Amino acid sequence: MLWWGVASALLANVLYSTGFVLEKRALAALPALSTRHPARLMRHLLGSPLWLGGSLALAAGFAAQLAVYRTLPIAAAQGIFISGLVLLLLMSSVLLGERTSGRERQSITAILLALALVVASLRHEDAQVIARTASPATLLALTVPSLAAGLLLYRSAELRARRRHRLPTAGVSYGVAVGLLYGVSSLAIKGVSGLLDLHDVPAAAVALVRSPYPYLLLFTGAAGLVLSQTALQRCRASVIVPVCTTATCVFTVACGTVAFGEPLPGDPLRLALRLGGTAVALTVLLALPRHEAPPTPPPAHPQRQDHGPQSGALKSEPEPDSAPVDRTASNHPPDQVT
Predict the structure, then answer these.
(1) 60: nearest Cα among 22, 28, 25, 26
(2) CA dihedral sign, ordered 253, 257, 260, 263
(3) Contact 85, 111 (CB under 8 A)
(4) In the chain, where does DSSP find H-type helix?
(5) Are 189 and 65 in contact (CB under 8 A)?
(6) Residue 328: helix, strand or coil by DSSP?
(7) 91, 140, 145, 266: least CB-packed within 10 angstroms?
(8) pTM over 0.85
(9) pLDDT tens per residue across span 103-158
Protein backbone atom coordinates (compact mmCIF):
# COMPACT_ATOMS: atom_id res chain seq x y z
CA MET A 1 0.00 0.00 0.00
CA LEU A 2 2.89 2.35 0.76
CA TRP A 3 4.25 2.34 -2.78
CA TRP A 4 0.76 2.67 -4.21
CA GLY A 5 0.63 5.94 -2.32
CA VAL A 6 3.92 7.04 -3.87
CA ALA A 7 2.63 6.15 -7.34
CA SER A 8 -0.62 8.04 -6.69
CA ALA A 9 1.35 11.11 -5.55
CA LEU A 10 3.47 11.07 -8.71
CA LEU A 11 0.32 10.68 -10.83
CA ALA A 12 -1.24 13.64 -9.01
CA ASN A 13 1.88 15.66 -9.86
CA VAL A 14 1.49 14.91 -13.57
CA LEU A 15 -2.20 15.81 -13.52
CA TYR A 16 -1.68 19.03 -11.57
CA SER A 17 1.19 20.20 -13.79
CA THR A 18 -0.80 19.43 -16.94
CA GLY A 19 -3.84 21.24 -15.58
CA PHE A 20 -1.93 24.38 -14.64
CA VAL A 21 -0.20 24.57 -18.02
CA LEU A 22 -3.48 24.16 -19.91
CA GLU A 23 -5.12 26.83 -17.77
CA LYS A 24 -2.19 29.20 -18.30
CA ARG A 25 -2.43 28.80 -22.10
CA ALA A 26 -6.17 29.42 -21.94
CA LEU A 27 -5.73 32.52 -19.76
CA ALA A 28 -3.36 34.07 -22.30
CA ALA A 29 -6.24 34.27 -24.78
CA LEU A 30 -8.79 35.70 -22.32
CA PRO A 31 -9.40 39.36 -21.41
CA ALA A 32 -7.73 40.71 -18.27
CA LEU A 33 -9.31 39.12 -15.20
CA SER A 34 -9.99 40.94 -11.95
CA THR A 35 -10.86 39.66 -8.50
CA ARG A 36 -13.23 42.63 -8.16
CA HIS A 37 -15.53 41.09 -10.80
CA PRO A 38 -15.79 37.38 -9.91
CA ALA A 39 -18.95 36.77 -11.93
CA ARG A 40 -17.35 38.16 -15.11
CA LEU A 41 -14.20 36.15 -14.35
CA MET A 42 -16.15 32.90 -14.11
CA ARG A 43 -18.05 33.67 -17.31
CA HIS A 44 -14.79 34.04 -19.22
CA LEU A 45 -13.30 30.89 -17.71
CA LEU A 46 -16.30 28.66 -18.33
CA GLY A 47 -16.43 29.83 -21.95
CA SER A 48 -12.92 28.51 -22.67
CA PRO A 49 -12.76 24.80 -23.66
CA LEU A 50 -8.99 24.74 -23.05
CA TRP A 51 -9.44 26.07 -19.53
CA LEU A 52 -12.14 23.48 -18.85
CA GLY A 53 -9.72 20.76 -19.96
CA GLY A 54 -7.14 22.03 -17.50
CA SER A 55 -9.75 22.08 -14.74
CA LEU A 56 -10.64 18.44 -15.45
CA ALA A 57 -6.97 17.51 -15.12
CA LEU A 58 -6.81 19.30 -11.76
CA ALA A 59 -9.97 17.51 -10.62
CA ALA A 60 -8.38 14.16 -11.49
CA GLY A 61 -5.33 15.22 -9.48
CA PHE A 62 -7.64 15.91 -6.54
CA ALA A 63 -8.99 12.34 -6.77
CA ALA A 64 -5.45 10.96 -6.80
CA GLN A 65 -4.61 13.09 -3.76
CA LEU A 66 -7.41 11.43 -1.80
CA ALA A 67 -5.74 8.06 -2.41
CA VAL A 68 -2.38 9.48 -1.33
CA TYR A 69 -3.65 10.63 2.07
CA ARG A 70 -5.13 7.21 2.79
CA THR A 71 -1.76 5.49 2.33
CA LEU A 72 0.98 8.00 3.23
CA PRO A 73 1.67 10.24 6.25
CA ILE A 74 1.19 13.96 5.68
CA ALA A 75 4.88 14.87 5.79
CA ALA A 76 5.86 12.14 3.34
CA ALA A 77 3.02 12.95 0.92
CA GLN A 78 3.93 16.64 0.79
CA GLY A 79 7.57 15.86 0.16
CA ILE A 80 6.62 13.85 -2.91
CA PHE A 81 4.16 16.48 -4.14
CA ILE A 82 7.03 18.97 -4.30
CA SER A 83 8.68 16.83 -6.99
CA GLY A 84 5.93 17.93 -9.36
CA LEU A 85 7.64 21.31 -9.58
CA VAL A 86 10.33 19.79 -11.80
CA LEU A 87 7.76 18.66 -14.36
CA LEU A 88 5.96 22.00 -14.14
CA LEU A 89 9.13 23.98 -14.86
CA LEU A 90 9.94 21.77 -17.84
CA MET A 91 6.40 21.97 -19.26
CA SER A 92 6.20 25.75 -18.82
CA SER A 93 9.50 26.12 -20.67
CA VAL A 94 8.54 23.81 -23.58
CA LEU A 95 4.82 24.51 -23.94
CA LEU A 96 4.52 28.08 -22.67
CA GLY A 97 7.87 29.44 -23.83
CA GLU A 98 8.64 30.80 -20.35
CA ARG A 99 12.35 31.33 -19.78
CA THR A 100 13.59 30.18 -16.40
CA SER A 101 16.38 32.02 -14.63
CA GLY A 102 19.56 30.39 -13.41
CA ARG A 103 18.23 30.45 -9.84
CA GLU A 104 15.03 28.71 -10.95
CA ARG A 105 17.04 26.03 -12.77
CA GLN A 106 19.07 25.45 -9.64
CA SER A 107 15.82 24.95 -7.74
CA ILE A 108 15.11 21.87 -9.88
CA THR A 109 18.19 20.17 -8.45
CA ALA A 110 17.18 21.17 -4.92
CA ILE A 111 13.65 19.81 -5.43
CA LEU A 112 14.96 16.47 -6.67
CA LEU A 113 17.15 16.30 -3.58
CA ALA A 114 14.13 17.02 -1.36
CA LEU A 115 12.17 14.22 -3.06
CA ALA A 116 15.02 11.74 -2.58
CA LEU A 117 15.34 12.62 1.11
CA VAL A 118 11.62 12.20 1.82
CA VAL A 119 11.28 8.92 -0.09
CA ALA A 120 14.35 7.55 1.70
CA SER A 121 12.63 8.23 5.04
CA LEU A 122 9.62 6.02 4.24
CA ARG A 123 9.07 2.59 5.78
CA HIS A 124 6.12 0.20 5.53
CA GLU A 125 5.23 0.75 9.19
CA ASP A 126 4.43 4.39 8.36
CA ALA A 127 1.09 3.25 6.94
CA GLN A 128 0.08 2.05 10.41
CA VAL A 129 0.29 5.52 12.01
CA ILE A 130 -1.81 7.47 9.52
CA ALA A 131 -4.43 9.54 11.35
CA ARG A 132 -7.94 9.70 9.93
CA THR A 133 -9.53 12.70 11.64
CA ALA A 134 -8.53 15.83 13.51
CA SER A 135 -10.07 17.74 16.41
CA PRO A 136 -12.42 20.33 14.87
CA ALA A 137 -11.37 22.96 17.41
CA THR A 138 -7.67 22.46 16.69
CA LEU A 139 -8.27 22.38 12.95
CA LEU A 140 -10.25 25.63 12.94
CA ALA A 141 -7.75 27.32 15.27
CA LEU A 142 -5.04 26.62 12.68
CA THR A 143 -6.96 27.21 9.47
CA VAL A 144 -9.08 30.33 10.12
CA PRO A 145 -6.09 32.64 10.87
CA SER A 146 -4.26 31.12 7.90
CA LEU A 147 -7.14 31.92 5.56
CA ALA A 148 -7.26 35.50 6.84
CA ALA A 149 -3.48 35.84 6.39
CA GLY A 150 -3.68 34.53 2.83
CA LEU A 151 -6.43 36.95 1.83
CA LEU A 152 -4.64 39.91 3.43
CA LEU A 153 -1.37 39.01 1.72
CA TYR A 154 -3.09 38.78 -1.67
CA ARG A 155 -4.77 42.15 -1.08
CA SER A 156 -1.42 43.69 -0.17
CA ALA A 157 0.13 42.30 -3.36
CA GLU A 158 -2.72 43.77 -5.39
CA LEU A 159 -2.18 47.22 -3.88
CA ARG A 160 1.57 47.10 -4.56
CA ALA A 161 0.95 46.05 -8.15
CA ARG A 162 -1.03 49.26 -8.79
CA ARG A 163 1.81 51.56 -7.77
CA ARG A 164 3.63 53.57 -10.41
CA HIS A 165 7.30 53.04 -11.19
CA ARG A 166 7.30 49.60 -9.61
CA LEU A 167 9.44 46.66 -10.68
CA PRO A 168 7.44 43.92 -12.43
CA THR A 169 6.46 41.41 -9.77
CA ALA A 170 7.52 37.79 -10.19
CA GLY A 171 4.40 36.65 -8.33
CA VAL A 172 5.97 35.29 -5.13
CA SER A 173 3.49 37.15 -2.89
CA TYR A 174 0.58 35.90 -4.99
CA GLY A 175 1.93 32.35 -4.82
CA VAL A 176 2.36 32.38 -1.04
CA ALA A 177 -1.14 33.83 -0.54
CA VAL A 178 -2.80 31.22 -2.74
CA GLY A 179 -0.56 28.55 -1.19
CA LEU A 180 -1.99 29.30 2.26
CA LEU A 181 -5.52 28.82 0.92
CA TYR A 182 -4.59 25.58 -0.80
CA GLY A 183 -2.78 24.45 2.36
CA VAL A 184 -6.07 24.69 4.23
CA SER A 185 -7.71 22.86 1.33
CA SER A 186 -5.07 20.13 1.60
CA LEU A 187 -5.91 19.59 5.27
CA ALA A 188 -9.59 19.39 4.35
CA ILE A 189 -8.81 16.78 1.68
CA LYS A 190 -6.89 14.82 4.29
CA GLY A 191 -9.93 14.90 6.57
CA VAL A 192 -12.32 13.87 3.81
CA SER A 193 -10.09 10.94 2.86
CA GLY A 194 -10.18 9.69 6.44
CA LEU A 195 -13.98 9.76 6.62
CA LEU A 196 -14.59 8.02 3.29
CA ASP A 197 -16.01 4.55 3.82
CA LEU A 198 -17.33 2.74 0.76
CA HIS A 199 -18.72 -0.05 2.96
CA ASP A 200 -21.11 2.32 4.73
CA VAL A 201 -21.80 5.27 2.43
CA PRO A 202 -24.77 6.76 4.38
CA ALA A 203 -22.80 6.88 7.63
CA ALA A 204 -19.79 8.37 5.83
CA ALA A 205 -22.02 11.08 4.28
CA VAL A 206 -23.46 12.00 7.68
CA ALA A 207 -19.98 12.17 9.19
CA LEU A 208 -18.80 14.45 6.38
CA VAL A 209 -21.73 16.84 6.80
CA ARG A 210 -21.06 17.10 10.53
CA SER A 211 -17.35 17.79 10.03
CA PRO A 212 -15.76 21.11 9.00
CA TYR A 213 -13.95 19.52 6.04
CA PRO A 214 -16.51 20.01 3.22
CA TYR A 215 -17.14 23.63 4.19
CA LEU A 216 -13.43 24.42 4.22
CA LEU A 217 -13.17 22.78 0.81
CA LEU A 218 -16.02 24.87 -0.60
CA PHE A 219 -14.56 28.15 0.65
CA THR A 220 -10.96 27.47 -0.35
CA GLY A 221 -12.08 26.04 -3.68
CA ALA A 222 -14.10 29.13 -4.62
CA ALA A 223 -11.65 31.71 -3.26
CA GLY A 224 -8.61 29.82 -4.55
CA LEU A 225 -10.11 29.58 -8.03
CA VAL A 226 -10.68 33.33 -8.35
CA LEU A 227 -7.34 34.34 -6.83
CA SER A 228 -5.17 31.72 -8.52
CA GLN A 229 -6.51 32.35 -12.03
CA THR A 230 -6.00 36.09 -11.70
CA ALA A 231 -2.44 35.59 -10.45
CA LEU A 232 -1.70 32.95 -13.08
CA GLN A 233 -2.75 35.29 -15.87
CA ARG A 234 -0.52 38.12 -14.61
CA CYS A 235 2.64 36.15 -13.76
CA ARG A 236 4.67 33.25 -15.09
CA ALA A 237 3.36 29.77 -14.27
CA SER A 238 6.98 28.73 -13.63
CA VAL A 239 6.97 31.10 -10.63
CA ILE A 240 3.36 31.09 -9.39
CA VAL A 241 2.89 27.32 -9.27
CA PRO A 242 6.23 26.39 -7.61
CA VAL A 243 5.81 29.06 -4.94
CA CYS A 244 2.18 28.09 -4.35
CA THR A 245 3.04 24.37 -4.17
CA THR A 246 5.96 24.91 -1.80
CA ALA A 247 3.92 27.16 0.51
CA THR A 248 1.10 24.60 0.48
CA CYS A 249 3.44 21.73 1.31
CA VAL A 250 5.24 23.53 4.14
CA PHE A 251 1.95 24.70 5.66
CA THR A 252 0.36 21.26 5.38
CA VAL A 253 3.33 19.52 7.01
CA ALA A 254 3.59 22.05 9.85
CA CYS A 255 -0.11 22.37 10.65
CA GLY A 256 -1.29 18.95 9.50
CA THR A 257 1.12 17.09 11.74
CA VAL A 258 -0.23 19.06 14.71
CA ALA A 259 -3.93 18.90 13.74
CA PHE A 260 -3.99 15.18 12.89
CA GLY A 261 -1.39 14.14 15.44
CA GLU A 262 0.67 12.01 13.08
CA PRO A 263 4.02 11.22 14.74
CA LEU A 264 7.29 11.84 12.95
CA PRO A 265 9.72 8.91 12.54
CA GLY A 266 11.32 7.83 15.81
CA ASP A 267 14.54 6.72 14.16
CA PRO A 268 17.00 9.68 14.18
CA LEU A 269 18.23 9.01 10.65
CA ARG A 270 14.74 8.80 9.14
CA LEU A 271 13.67 11.89 11.08
CA ALA A 272 16.65 13.82 9.72
CA LEU A 273 15.86 12.70 6.17
CA ARG A 274 12.22 13.76 6.37
CA LEU A 275 12.86 17.09 8.07
CA GLY A 276 15.82 17.71 5.77
CA GLY A 277 13.65 17.22 2.68
CA THR A 278 11.11 19.71 4.03
CA ALA A 279 13.86 22.19 4.86
CA VAL A 280 15.28 21.95 1.33
CA ALA A 281 11.81 22.63 -0.09
CA LEU A 282 11.46 25.71 2.10
CA THR A 283 14.88 26.90 0.96
CA VAL A 284 13.67 26.73 -2.65
CA LEU A 285 10.80 29.07 -1.77
CA LEU A 286 13.07 31.59 -0.05
CA ALA A 287 15.64 31.53 -2.87
CA LEU A 288 13.27 32.50 -5.68
CA PRO A 289 13.50 36.15 -6.83
CA ARG A 290 10.67 38.48 -5.79
CA HIS A 291 10.76 40.61 -8.96
CA GLU A 292 11.23 39.97 -12.64
CA ALA A 293 14.45 41.22 -14.18
CA PRO A 294 13.92 44.59 -15.88
CA PRO A 295 13.73 44.39 -19.66
CA THR A 296 17.00 44.88 -21.49
CA PRO A 297 16.95 48.19 -23.41
CA PRO A 298 17.47 47.89 -27.17
CA PRO A 299 20.94 48.84 -28.42
CA ALA A 300 21.31 52.47 -29.46
CA HIS A 301 21.46 53.10 -33.19
CA PRO A 302 24.89 54.44 -34.20
CA GLN A 303 24.89 57.77 -35.96
CA ARG A 304 25.23 57.51 -39.68
CA GLN A 305 28.47 58.87 -41.02
CA ASP A 306 29.62 59.67 -44.55
CA HIS A 307 32.48 61.44 -46.23
CA GLY A 308 32.21 65.11 -47.05
CA PRO A 309 32.37 66.14 -50.69
CA GLN A 310 35.70 68.00 -50.35
CA SER A 311 37.54 66.24 -47.53
CA GLY A 312 38.04 62.85 -45.97
CA ALA A 313 36.65 63.99 -42.62
CA LEU A 314 33.69 62.08 -41.25
CA LYS A 315 30.43 63.91 -40.74
CA SER A 316 27.56 62.78 -38.57
CA GLU A 317 24.02 63.36 -39.72
CA PRO A 318 21.52 64.33 -37.04
CA GLU A 319 18.68 61.91 -36.40
CA PRO A 320 15.41 63.10 -37.97
CA ASP A 321 13.57 62.77 -34.68
CA SER A 322 16.12 64.60 -32.57
CA ALA A 323 13.85 67.52 -31.78
CA PRO A 324 14.48 69.46 -28.57
CA VAL A 325 12.88 67.82 -25.53
CA ASP A 326 10.63 69.86 -23.29
CA ARG A 327 12.29 69.37 -19.90
CA THR A 328 9.40 70.94 -18.06
CA ALA A 329 7.29 67.85 -18.73
CA SER A 330 9.67 65.57 -16.83
CA ASN A 331 7.92 66.30 -13.57
CA HIS A 332 4.74 64.75 -14.88
CA PRO A 333 5.46 61.20 -16.06
CA PRO A 334 2.79 59.60 -18.20
CA ASP A 335 0.41 57.10 -16.72
CA GLN A 336 1.61 53.52 -16.76
CA VAL A 337 -0.57 50.51 -17.24
CA THR A 338 -0.28 48.23 -14.28
Answers:
(1) 22
(2) positive
(3) yes
(4) 2-28, 38-46, 49-71, 74-81, 84-95, 102-120, 136-161, 172-195, 201-210, 213-234, 237-260, 268-287
(5) yes
(6) helix
(7) 266
(8) no
(9) 666 776 777 777 678 777 777 666 666 767 888 889 999 999 999 999 999 988 88
